[in-house]
């Protein structure tokens, strides 16, 4: 083994130093001291700046001796530091030439892009001292967490049911019932794990949880005067550091342990953790944004720049990271490896992932090095990789994202097709493709149904309740004259815009939500549910609540009682999916009988059995799955029949016959009066008339043949 030399060779104003190790980047505890390593290809000098925690002024500034530079890496070991009480940054000197892409300014203290803990925003929503010379302060992590043999769960993708949530919104509401000091934190989610277990999901997808600045672009609400924040957090300050403001212990610097405790407890309960990561841009914004880290360290390396020195803006937020530069690619890989190894994270969803496939001038690459590297990385080999396969620059790659056999996609075409079919606008042909796991998008290239992350609602857009309560968006509270947020919502208010006391409209809205969820849960692929949809959470028609730290985003837990019928239906449908492997095939249907059961794996029907109406005017479709074609290794499954009547009138549906000795049982019928619209799986009553079923207007029925 190499001997680690712990003897200083240099001194500077009383500090003992020696040349450091270039890898790993960042600040690493070594015998007797701390190794600091930072890259810059254009800087001419670098100075380490040291603070005691929370102190306004540094207690030391140590220039890196030239002999401590190895290539383009400044690396130095400083001995005898109190690393538990330390904050550090850098000053970089070099050319300052806008058109050439250089922004060096030695008067600014820069945050280490590899910082594992970041101070300065320790408690959510506490207004910072704007005169502070160093806002986002790198700290040193030391790992003594006891994982107790925990490891990522490696649930097969097709068996996942994903629950997308915002950490603060999930438990911030006073009705959440968690300890007051835990409201809106990682610890709050931990208290609510029994709820997630009861619902039946086995993966949570957390909106950004690394350090971001909630005060970025903060401003008064023009309607109420309350502060509008960077609430969602899609604007990275530090890729490696969990957000202190999301930890009940953040003011004590314990956010690392609190997040690890949450992950460990979720794993104990069979729930995976997927992180929403944003590598397409940073919080430094455009030419008018703050200098936090990358811009002052090596602007020309880290960002895509025009020939005139301006920032390309494929993210829609001011700048675009130069992800296919080898240095930036290295940071992304190091970051994800860190989360996977140090936090046992099970997967990652990549915001605006199409950007990750652009070259330094913005053109789409045929073989993007970063996407390939992530797909074949040995440490990430079992992690789920999920792409939001579009960007703000107009690149839309749903169905064509460079997958390398590994990448799944948020299927925006599923969302659009099912929404249209739900309101009576879409075609049954398109709906049939989506229900089968979108073989038109994925089967041609050999990609499995689980490539398709199926969702009808997500954080970006209407909630499920708002999808059936509003014809148009109502984003006035955002202060942008209702110009922000998408106009293409494919929503229908069921006859009245917004809340109403009309019982008929409210019953129809609940039925439409159940219709949507029923279709989602019988679709091949991976279903994703938006936090609160299971209890009818509303954003009052706002489809872009990115800036609100209030009831527009917080989950009101009193809805669990108010909309108990929705929660029960969600719970039953998730349990039904989990019970039936024929709903979770790892391959696409072949539309033929390849096991000798007498039935094809999937057959299509309409109001007449065996005779689907595929015309553009059709609003009815049904399909049957043969349980003998369930995925390999699974116990032979039942037959499942799903009938969907999106017509505004009741219709009689003939039902295909079953093999001798089997009968149809009713698992769900959204047209029935609660509580008889769904049943606990395994307790389904037998269908009275085995030859047919009267389907109410705008309803879905799910039968199980056994």
From TrEMBL:
Its EC number is 3.2.1.196. It comes from the Bacteria. InterPro entries: GH, GH13_cat_dom, Glyco_hydro_13_N, Glyco_hydro_b, Glycogen_debranch_GlgX, Ig-like_fold, Ig_E-set, ISOA1-3-like_C. Residues 164-577 form the Glycosyl hydrolase family 13 catalytic domain. Keywords: Glycosidase, Hydrolase, Transit peptide. GO terms for molecular function: limit dextrin alpha-1,6-maltotetraose-hydrolase activity. It is an enzyme of class 3 (hydrolase). It holds the Pfam family ISOA1-3_C. Belongs to the glycosyl hydrolase 13 family. PANTHER family: GLYCOGEN DEBRANCHING ENZYME. This is Glycogen debranching protein GlgX. It comes from Okeanomitos corallinicola TIOX110.
């Amino acid at each position: 083994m190499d001997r680690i030399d712990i003897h200083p060779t240099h001194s500077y104003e009383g500090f003992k130093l020696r040349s450091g190790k270039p890898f790993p980047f960042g600040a690493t505890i070594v015998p007797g001291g701390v190794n600091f390593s930072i890259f810059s290809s254009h800087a001419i000098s670098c100075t380490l700046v040291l603070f005691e925690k929370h102190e306004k002024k540094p207690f030391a500034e140590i220039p890196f001796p030239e002999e401590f530079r190895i290539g383009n890496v400044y690396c130095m070991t400083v001995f005898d530091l109190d690393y538990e009480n330390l904050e550090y940054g850098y000053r970089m000197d070099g050319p300052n030439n806008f058109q050439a892409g250089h922004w060096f300014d030695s008067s600014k203290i820069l945050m280490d892009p590899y910082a594992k803990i970041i101070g300065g925003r320790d408690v959510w929503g506490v207004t910072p001292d704007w005169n502070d010379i160093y806002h986002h302060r790198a700290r040193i992590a030391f790992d003594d967490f006891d994982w107790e043999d925990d490891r990522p769960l490696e649930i097969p993708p097709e068996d996942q049911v994903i629950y997308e949530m915002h950490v603060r919104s999930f438990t911030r509401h006073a009705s959440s019932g968690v300890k007051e000091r835990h409201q809106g934190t990682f610890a709050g989610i931990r208290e609510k794990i029994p709820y997630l277990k009861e619902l039946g999901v086995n993966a949570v997808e957390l909106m950004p949880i690394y350090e971001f600045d909630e005060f970025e672009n903060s401003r008064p609400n023009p309607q109420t005067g309350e502060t509008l924040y960077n609430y969602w957090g899609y604007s990275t300050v530090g890729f490696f550091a969990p957000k202190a403001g999301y930890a009940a212990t953040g003011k004590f610097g314990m956010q690392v342990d609190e997040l690890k405790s949450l992950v460990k407890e979720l794993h104990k309960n069979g729930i995976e953790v997927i992180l929403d990561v944003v590598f397409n841009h940073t919080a430094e914004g455009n030419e008018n944004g703050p200098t936090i880290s990358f811009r002052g360290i090596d602007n020309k390396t880290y960002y895509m720049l025009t020939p005139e020195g301006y920032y390309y803006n494929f993210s829609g937020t001011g700048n675009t990271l130069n992800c296919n530069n080898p240095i930036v690619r290295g940071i992304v890989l190091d970051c994800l490896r860190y989360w996977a190894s140090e936090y046992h994270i099970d997967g990652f969803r990549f915001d605006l992932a199409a950007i990750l496939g652009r070259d330094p001038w913005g053109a789409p690459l045929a073989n993007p090095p970063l996407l390939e590297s992530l797909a074949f990385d040995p440490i990430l080999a079992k992690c789920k990789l999920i792409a939001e396969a579009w960007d703000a620059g107009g690149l839309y790659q749903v169905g064509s994202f460079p997958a390398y056999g590994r990448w799944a996609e948020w299927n925006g075409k599923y969302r659009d097709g099912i929404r249209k079919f739900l309101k009576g606008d879409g075609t049954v042909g398109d709906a049939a493709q989506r229900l089968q796991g979108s073989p038109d998008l994925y089967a041609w290239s050999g990609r499995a149904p689980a490539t398709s992350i199926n969702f009808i609602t997500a954080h970006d857009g209407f909630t499920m309740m708002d999808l059936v309560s509003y014809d148009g968006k109502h984003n006035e509270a955002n202060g942008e004259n209702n110009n922000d947020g998408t106009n293409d919502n494919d929503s229908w208010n069921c006859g009245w815009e917004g809340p109403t006391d009309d019982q008929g409209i409210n019953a129809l809205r609940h039925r439409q939500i159940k219709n949507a969820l029923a279709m989602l849960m019988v679709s091949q692929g991976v279903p994703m549910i938006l936090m609160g949809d299971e209890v009818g959470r509303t954003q009052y028609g706002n489809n872009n609540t990115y800036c609100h730290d209030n009831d527009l985003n917080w989950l009101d837990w009193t809805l669990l009682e108010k909309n108990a019928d929705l929660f029960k239906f969600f719970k039953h449908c998730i349990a039904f999916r989990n019970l039936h492997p024929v709903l979770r095939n790892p391959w696409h249907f072949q539309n033929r009988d390849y096991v000798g059961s007498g039935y094809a794996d999937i057959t299509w029907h309409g109001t007449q059995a065996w005779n689907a109406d595929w015309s553009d005017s059709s609003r009815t479709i049904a399909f049957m799955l043969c349980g003998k074609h369930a995925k390999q290794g699974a116990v032979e499954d039942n037959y499942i029949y799903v009938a969907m009547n999106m017509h505004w009138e009741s219709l009689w549906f003939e039902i295909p016959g079953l093999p001798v000795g089997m009968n149809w049982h009713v698992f769900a019928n959204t047209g029935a009066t609660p509580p008889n619209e769904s049943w606990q799986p395994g307790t389904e009553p037998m269908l009275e008339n085995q030859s047919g079923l009267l389907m109410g207007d705008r309803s879905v029925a799910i039968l199980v043949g056994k």
